[in-house]
Specification:
It is built from 9 helices and no strands. By secondary structure, the protein is an all-alpha fold. Helix 3 (about 35-50) runs antiparallel to helix 4, helix 5 packs antiparallel against helix 8 and helix 7 packs antiparallel against helix 9. The relative contact order is 0.16. The mean pLDDT is about 90.
Length: about 210
């Protein structure tokens, strides 16, 4: 439902990130703050992305994808510095938009077919072109493909990390973690799209 999409894409799941963003100005100079936030954020991004590519339920793929994206946003808003914070907020807004659309897509699929299991779904692209177009656009943004907002936000994140004075010697490790997490994001984005809409070895519905 729209309310569920709003809560799970834009509101409720961002509460923890909001708290970190509020605390960062006061704690960023503490020696334990930045290493803790960066480590937990990157681990969350990578491990949740890995879990997402192993799921068969469309909603669980998106749910673990949300956890992974929140790990990235945590890194950006918790590292300190205004540029890192702004880049993190850009990703937060991009995530809210493409993930809300994708949750609505999953709701429509579940309501229409009675299942969210990608092993039982096929040919949906032939049955609903408009739903396919929305899913492709939102998934492309999630995978950070140009010219979508997700690409702009991810590019801002990577560029900011690369040139951030606050990260210092940790910048290459943070960059490597984000790149690895982004590869996993692309994989589970494709898994979601082709799992739901691909022409697989199931019989075509009449």
């Amino acid at each position: 439902t729209p309310v569920s999409a709003y809560l799970h894409a834009a509101a409720m799941v961002k509460a923890g990130v909001y708290l970190i963003a509020r605390m960062t100005p006061g704690f960023a100079d503490a020696p334990e703050w930045r290493p803790t936030v960066l480590t937990l954020g990157l681990l969350t991004m990578v491990l949740a992305g890995w879990r997402a590519i192993r799921e068969y339920d469309l909603k669980l793929i998106l749910a673990f994808g949300t956890v992974s994206q929140l790990g990235l946003i945590t890194v950006m808003v918790g590292a300190g510095g205004s540029e890192m914070m702004l880049a993190g907020l850009a990703m937060l807004f991009a995530h809210a938009m493409f993930k809300a659309a994708l949750f609505m897509v999953v709701g429509i699929i579940d309501h229409t077919t009675g299942t969210r299991d990608i092993r039982r779904l096929a040919w949906l692209g032939d049955r609903s072109r408009s739903l396919l177009i929305v899913a492709v656009a939102a998934t492309a943004s999630m995978a950070a493909l140009p010219p979508f907002f997700g690409f702009i936000a991810k590019e801002a994140d990577l560029d900011t990390v690369l040139h951030s004075p606050t990260l210092g010697s940790a910048a290459p490790f943070v960059l490597a973690g984000i790149v690895l997490g982004s590869v996993l994001t692309t994989v589970y984005s494709l898994r979601f799209l082709f799992g739901a809409f691909g022409r697989k070895g199931l019989p075509q519905p009449s």
